[in-house]
């Protein structure tokens, strides 16, 4: 089996690392981990600690301001290291957030917003060049002509004139 569990992801994931203290019902104690990515519906936690799909997991996300957000999740995906390594990633647990107070849900959503804001922006293309069709309205200043457009166009030299015919000697 490639990945254990169905892939029903509905929310966009954002790479974002925050410390998380987690404890599945099958683990003897809390384990300190880091998130690999986060979405509005949950998070992925790279770990060698395994759990069963459907298992409840307590997570305390440590926010950048030093406070924590306690939530209850459900393991919805288990990705073993040997499967993840083929894709150049680490194995771990996909966790869906299933319980939280309105306050902790709002704080979790703020963390997701911070993750979205931290994403690199795609390179924006330069604005289109003005064309002859972009004629200014009466009274508007005429935009300067870009230097490249004002430069003379290089043309090939004209063909050389034909060489004169050799002189004939008369006898």
Structural write-up:
The protein has 171 residues and is of the alpha+beta class. It contains three helices and eight strands, in the order βββββββαβαα. It has an eight-stranded antiparallel β-sheet with strand order 1-4-5-8-7-6-2-3. The radius of gyration is 33 Å and the shape is elongated. It starts with 13 loop residues before the first strand and ends in a 21-residue tail after the last helix.
Portion of residues in helices? Answer: 10-25%
Query: In percent terms, what proportion of residues is strand?
Result: 25-35%
Mean pLDDT: 78
N- to C-terminal distance: 104 Å
What summary fits the major beta sheet?
8 strands, antiparallel
| C-alpha Rg (nearest Å) | 33 Å
Sequence of strands across the biggest β-sheet: 1-4-5-8-7-6-2-3
The helix tally amounts to 3
Spatial shape: elongated
Low-confidence spans: 1-6
How many β strands by DSSP?
8
Written as H for each helix and E for each strand, in order along the chain, the element string is: EEEEEEEHEHH
Give the class from helix and strand content and strand pairing. Answer: alpha+beta
